[in-house]
């Protein structure tokens, strides 16, 4: 895996005119190397080991199996064979050549590391486009109270509210969650504007179960908070988009899946419409989906998608719908003809293209050279500002399955236009954008300060009953409260950046309770200087109960006549209640048998 750049190296990279020096290009070229493959998880280099033939098993006269005797003469022994290595799959080279030519691989060799994901000299520095992140802001999510747009619940909760408070209570609770989510969207836009982030993907979970077949609903109740968010977005030059989930598949052969997908797209379209964006802001508010599964036949899947798109989708959905290449089945070259035929913009995901490049080679050079202009034209023909997605795999990822997991942050920029709207898809969300801004010295990077570990100076203290009572007793002066619109905004010093892997800095430090001091006597017992005193046990006088047929006697006192309780189980067998015979039983006489 290519070595990740440090902060100093990334800073020097940003200061060059095109973002990459000749030395860095040479380093990237040399990083593409291959070695022999052994049967180990880390593909360590090992020599071939001979494989001994299996001994034949013969049966003895008594029917038991016995091993064949070793061959005495070397000539009689079969020749040793060598273990075969799995053949590496060669990809058909592209017609367009790249300066980063991979080494020729033998049939028994595969790379131990991936070639550089960005194998292009060009970097869009200085960057004049809009960088964005998806759905969640980690800093605001850890505020008190938290700010996020994906509060949800389970269907059982809806039914429980209906059962406890009457019909309609569950729906009222469900809609209240959506209103709170929509209200926090405005806070999120204001926070982004303060730190020069002008691109945001709205969470598809803002209104839980809104597209459900039974519990679905429209968004009239949230019209006002959505309108306020749209006005703020236009005021700050903010682009808002959405990305319905992976279950929204228009090419599925199952009719119920298609019905659910159309209903989900209608909900997303209504949400974007209720933002009441104007002009270019409204045209740029797109919905990105994947083609979905292959279902055993790609041509048939594309045919079903085209039929649903042309015959069943509303004009509002068609106006916003965008396709994206994925990291499982569909490459850019497979989706582009459909996008050109139906006038659907195509989102280029650089990371997905490295995993599913089609007939192209892995990397950014080929896809940009071969399809870059055709992809751009799918956007300009509809008057929509082009957008792209960029992410990186976790360090050390080799296989396709490993590379699908996104890294927490990214260290490079793709060779896109310097005016591109670039969505950074990383685990650390806005912090990944901050990392790029600091590394490449992008606009606003100097305004991002480091957080103070475990301290939040942009929040109001939480008043507890104990603390409030203590203040009243000591007559302390009340602390100046932070205005509601400034809570969670990073304060005057803009302390919102936390180092990678240290999200715990955003939360209060955990309190460690001190152990209670042991008395001297207990310490002496632990050290062996004293012995523990025997515990005192109160002796209980045994109570004997005697039961006869007519009288119960307890410790010599007669009580009323009762019948003995039935005995059950082992405890009953060991009970202190024992039936006894009468003191003077009548003599029994045996009857004589009569013939």
UniProtKB/TrEMBL annotation:
Positions with biased composition (Basic residues): 82-92
One Pfam family linked to the record: UvdE
GO biological process, one term: mitochondrial DNA repair
Compositionally skewed regions (Basic and acidic residues) per UniProt: 59-71, 452-465
Disordered: annotated span: 1-121, 386-408, 452-480, 509-595
Compositionally biased residues, Polar residues: 13-44
Signal peptide positions on this chain: none
Keywords: DNA damage, DNA excision, DNA repair, Endonuclease, Hydrolase, Nuclease
Entry's Gene Ontology cellular component terms: mitochondrion; nucleus
Superkingdom as given in the UniProt entry: Eukaryota
Segments of skewed composition (Acidic residues): 96-110
UniProt-recorded Gene Ontology molecular function terms: endonuclease activity; hydrolase activity
InterPro entries to which the protein is assigned, alphabetical: UvdE, Xyl_isomerase-like_sf
PANTHER family: UV-DAMAGE ENDONUCLEASE
Protein name (record): UV-damage endonuclease
């Amino acid at each position: 895996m290519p070595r990740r750049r440090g902060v100093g190296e990334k800073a020097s990279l940003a200061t060059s005119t095109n973002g990459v020096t000749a030395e860095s290009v040479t380093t990237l070229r040399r990083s593409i190397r291959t070695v022999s493959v052994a049967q180990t998880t880390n593909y360590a280099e090992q020599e071939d080991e001979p494989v001994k033939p299996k001994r034949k098993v013969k049966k003895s006269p008594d029917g038991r199996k016995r091993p064949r005797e070793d061959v005495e003469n070397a000539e009689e022994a079969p020749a040793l064979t060598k273990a075969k290595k799995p053949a590496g799959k060669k990809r058909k080279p592209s017609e367009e050549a790249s300066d980063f030519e991979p080494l020729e691989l033998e049939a028994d060799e595969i790379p131990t590391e991936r070639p550089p994901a960005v194998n292009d000299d060009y970097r869009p520095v200085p960057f004049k486009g809009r960088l964005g992140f998806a759905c969640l802001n980690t800093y605001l999510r850890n505020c008190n109270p938290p700010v996020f747009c994906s509060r949800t619940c389970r269907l059982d909760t809806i039914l429980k509210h209906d059962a406890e408070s009457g019909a309609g209570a569950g729906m009222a609770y469900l809609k209240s969650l959506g209103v709170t989510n929509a209200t926090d969207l405005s806070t999120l836009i204001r926070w982004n504007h303060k730190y020069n982030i002008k691109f945001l993907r709205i969470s598809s979970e803002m209104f839980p179960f809104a597209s459900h077949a039974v519990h679905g609903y429209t968004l009239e109740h949230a019209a006002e908070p959505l309108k306020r968010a749209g006005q703020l977005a236009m005021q700050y030059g903010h682009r808002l988009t959405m990305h319905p989930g992976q279950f929204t598949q228009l090419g599925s052969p199952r009719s119920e899946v298609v019905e659910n997908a159309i209903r989900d797209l209608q909900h997303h379209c209504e949400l974007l419409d209720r933002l009441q964006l104007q002009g270019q802001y409204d045209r740029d508010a797109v919905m990105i989906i994947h083609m979905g599964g292959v279902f055993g036949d790609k041509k048939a899947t594309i045919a079903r998608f085209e039929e649903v798109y042309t015959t069943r989708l509303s004009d509002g959905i068609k106006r916003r719908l965008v396709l994206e290449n994925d990291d499982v089945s569909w490459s850019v070259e497979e989706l582009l003809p459909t996008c050109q035929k139906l006038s659907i913009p195509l989102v280029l995901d650089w990371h997905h293209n490295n995993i599913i490049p089609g007939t192209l080679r892995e990397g950014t050079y080929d896809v940009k050279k071969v399809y870059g202009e055709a992809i751009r034209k799918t956007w300009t023909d509809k008057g929509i500002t082009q957008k792209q997605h960029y992410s990186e795999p976790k360090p050390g990822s080799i296989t396709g399955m490993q590379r699908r997991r996104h890294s927490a942050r990214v260290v490079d920029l793709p060779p896109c236009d310097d005016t591109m709207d670039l969505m950074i898809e990383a685990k650390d969300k806005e912090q990944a954008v901050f990392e790029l801004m600091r590394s490449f010295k992008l606009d606003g990077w100097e305004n991002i300060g480091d957080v103070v570990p475990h301290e939040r100076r942009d929040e109001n203290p939480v008043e507890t009953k104990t603390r409030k009572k203590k203040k009243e007793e000591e007559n302390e002066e009340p602390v100046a409260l932070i205005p509601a619109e400034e809570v969670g905004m990073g304060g005057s010093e803009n302390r919102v950046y936390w180092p990678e892997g240290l999200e715990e800095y955003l939360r209060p430090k955990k309190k460690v309770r001190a152990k209670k001091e042991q008395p001297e006597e207990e310490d002496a017992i632990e050290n062996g200087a004293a012995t523990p005193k025997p515990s005192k046990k109160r002796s209980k006088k045994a109570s004997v109960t005697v039961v006869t047929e007519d009288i119960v006697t307890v410790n010599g006192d007669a009580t009323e006549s009762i019948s003995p309780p039935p005995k059950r189980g082992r405890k009953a067998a060991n009970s202190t209640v024992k039936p006894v015979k009468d003191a003077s039983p009548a003599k029994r006489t045996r009857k004589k048998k009569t013939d």
